[in-house]
Design a protein that fits this description.
- InterPro entries: SAM-dependent_MTases_sf.
- By secondary structure, the chain is of the alpha/beta class.
- The chain is built from 11 helices and 8 strands.
- It folds into 2 domains: 228 residues, Vaccinia Virus protein VP39 (Rossmann fold), CATH 3.40.50; 86 residues.
- 41% of the residues lie in helices and 14% in strands.
- An 8-stranded mixed beta sheet has the order 1-7-8-6-5-2-3-4, with helices on both faces.
């Protein structure tokens, strides 16, 4: 992406090449076979479409921040090929995850055909860049060598607040990382049935903002936290010296059920119990309940029919380039 453009693209259906790549990804990623069509295949389709929108090339050496169990990491590894590499980092505890832990998922990946291209580090970006990785020309080794770009593949939504996003971009800038590939939920509907997904994430973001006793490392804790929007990401990047070189919007296919999952969670008993058990003021609890009620009313509209009618939000894909100092 050499110029700044904004377009909306629909994630394509599988073709023969996609089938081959998908087989490789599924073989490399620890998953529940019963959830292939409902969960894993739609997510990998979106990951590959996102990587294509960024314009990632073979041979690139990437830092995958917030890699989780490695879903984005294996997709990136498949694209960069044998000449590229993926250094994947995450701060979650290695026993975090359900039904598979981070430790189990990473071990499975490293034994797979794509494993040689991927290295995992249980560390945050700032610590990795200052303590583990050695910038080329600075002396010493470690950290898998040069980094062509950092990758933020739908992880910023789960950062605790906007200031932590700012700190991340500042750390990348200080380390001289020349490019950042970022993707996040757009938080703006291009199709009416996406509104329910947006409302569900807003309810969770309110809970995260107000609850001082959030469980840490709970394998069934919801992922949505601060849910920073595009403008917050753009501000953080600009303050750190990055400019947008290209952007696009991807509309997931209907089989991408992330929106439905978030709706089901917010309307289900676990979220309701957490709201009741949190240390909230009456006003805070009322605000969250109002958000849930707004979601409930939204789902009563005729456009929502059946269990798969909620559409996932568009994904905003953006490439940032670090500006050279004068």
């Amino acid at each position: 992406m050499a110029v700044c453009t904004t377009t909306t693209t629909t994630v394509p259906d599988k073709d023969k090449d996609m089938d081959t790549t998908m087989d490789s990804l599924l073989a490399s990623f620890l998953h529940n076979p019963a959830l292939l069509d409902k969960f894993h295949i739609p997510r990998f389709k979106l990951r590959l479409a996102t990587i294509a929108a960024w314009g990632v090339q073979k041979g690139e050496r990437l830092l995958d921040i917030g890699c989780g169990q490695g879903e984005s990491s294996v997709a990136l590894a498949a694209v960069v090929g044998d000449g590229g590499s993926v250094t994947a980092i995450d701060t979650a505890q290695m026993d975090y995850g359900d039904p598979f832990t981070m430790r189990e998922a990473h071990a499975h990946i490293q034994k797979s055909a794509l494993g040689a291209r991927i290295s995992f580090y249980p560390v945050d970006a700032s610590s990795f860049l200052t303590r583990v990785w050695k910038k080329p020309g600075s002396g010493g080794g470690g950290g898998d060598g040069p980094i062509d770009a950092a990758v933020l593949c739908q992880c910023l939504f789960y950062f605790p607040d906007a200031s932590s996003v700012q700190s991340l971009f500042a750390a990348l800038s200080s380390a001289g990382i020349p490019r950042v590939y970022a993707a996040e939920w757009s938080y703006a509907p291009s199709h009416a049935p996406q509104r329910a997904h947006i409302l569900a994430t807003r309810a969770q973001a309110l809970y995260h903002m107000y609850d001082a006793r959030r469980p840490v490392g709970d394998p069934v804790e919801q992922n949505v936290r601060a849910a920073v929007d595009q403008q917050a990401v753009l501000r953080a990047a600009a303050r750190a010296g990055y400019r947008v070189s290209g952007e696009t919007l991807l509309t997931p296919e209907q089989d991408m059920r992330e929106g439905q999952f978030e709706v089901d969670y917010v309307l289900g008993p676990r979220f309701q119990q957490r709201v009741k058990g949190a240390s909230l003021t009456s006003a805070q609890e009322a605000e969250i309940k109002d958000a849930v009620q707004e979601l409930t009313l939204e789902l009563e509209k005729p456009l929502y029919s059946g269990t798969t009618s909620v559409m996932a939000m568009d994904v905003w894909c953006v490439v940032f380039e670090l500006q050279k100092s004068d």
